Amino acid sequence: EIVLTQSPGTLSLSPGERATLSCRASQSVSSTYLVWYQQKPGQAPRLLIYGASNRATGIPDRFSGSGSGTDFTLTISRLEPEDFAVYYCQQYGSSVYTFGQGTKVEIK
Amino acid sequence: QVQLQESGPGLVKPSETLSLICSVSGGSISSYYWSWTRQSPGKGLQWIGYVYYTGSTNYNPSLKSRLTISVDTSKNQFSLKLSSVTAADTAVYYCARDHWELLGGKEYYYGMDVWGQGTTVTVS
Fold first, then answer.
1. Residue B42 — pLDDT band, cuts 50, 70, 90?
2. Three-class SS string for B38-98?
3. What torsion do the CA atoms of B21, B22, B27, B28 make, to the nearest 10 degrees?
4. What digits encode the pLDDT tens for the residues B43-67?
5. A13 touching B (Cβ < 8 Å)
6. Which of the four, A1, B22, B47, B110, has the lowest number of CB atoms within 10 Å?
7. pLDDT tens-digit readout, A27-43
8. What gap in Å lies between CA B114 and CA A59, rounded to an integer?
9. In this complex, is the C-beta atom of B2 within 8 Å of any C-beta atom belonging to chain A?
10. Do residue B111 and residue A97 have CB atoms under 8 angstroms apart?
11. How distant is the Cα of A81 from the closest Cα of chain B, in angstroms?
12. B10 to chain A nearest CA, in Å?
C-alpha cells in the first residue's frame, strides 16, 4: 500500500498570502492517479485537482497542482477567506486508494 | 446535476452489521464507479471500496473480510454492508461517484467528483 505523507500538518497564513502544500508518496505514483480535495468542517470533501495538475470543474485558477513521482504540491496563489480548510491528497495504486492525513490551512 | 444521498441506521450494536444505501438522483448509475469512504471523528479519510455499475467490486484490503458493496441499477442505488462492527467503525460514511474513463485504450482518473453529504454511524 502506498502511504501519502502531507506536510505541514497545519499552515497558518493570512488572506492574500500564498499557500504551498506538500504530498509525498512512499513509492512512485502515476500523475494520472493523484488527486487533491478540500474539506470544510461538517462538509463532504470537494474535488479540486485531478491528474496532479488539472483543475476540476468550477475550481478557481488560484488553485494549482504540480509534481510527479513521489512529490506533489498543491498551491493556492492568494488565499481567500473561503480557502481556509483541510486539504487531502489521494492516490490510486495497486488497486487501492489511499489518502494523506491532511493539511489544515488556518487563518493566522 | 447528479446528487447522492446516504441513508441507514445511525446507531449499530457491536458485532452486528452496518448497512447503508446511497441513492443516486439526477443521473444514471450506469457507466460509473461508485465509492464509499469514511472519516472517523477528528481523523482523516479512509477509502472503503467501490462498485462498478456492472457489479464488479474492489475493496480496501484492511476491510475486505467484513465488507460487501453492491449495486442495484433498477433503483439507481448502491449499498454497503460491513459486518462484525466495533467502536473503531464509528465514523461519518460518505458515498461518492468515482470518475474513471477509458480513452484510446488508456484509463484516466478524474477523482471522486460528486459526494453525498455523509451519514454518521455510531457503534455502541
1. confident
2. EECCCCCEEEEEEEECCCCEEECCCCHHHEEEEEECCCCEEEEEECCCCHHHCEEEEEEEE
3. -50
4. 889 999 999 999 999 999 999 999 9
5. no
6. A1
7. 999 999 999 999 999 99
8. 14
9. no
10. no
11. 22
12. 16
CB contact under 8 A, A51 and B108: yes
Q: Could A44 and B116 be called an inter-chain contact, meaning their C-beta atoms sit closer than 8 Å?
A: yes
Contact list in A for residue B37 (CB cut-off 8 A) is 45
CB of A14 within 8 Å of any CB in chain B? Answer: no
Show residues of chain B in contact with A96, CB under 8 Å: 47, 58, 60-61
* Buried-state track A70-91, b at ≥16 Cβ within 10 A, e below 16: eebbbebeebeeebbbbbbbbb
One-letter amino acid for residue A12 of the chain:
S
- Pair A73, A80: CB distance under 8 Å: no
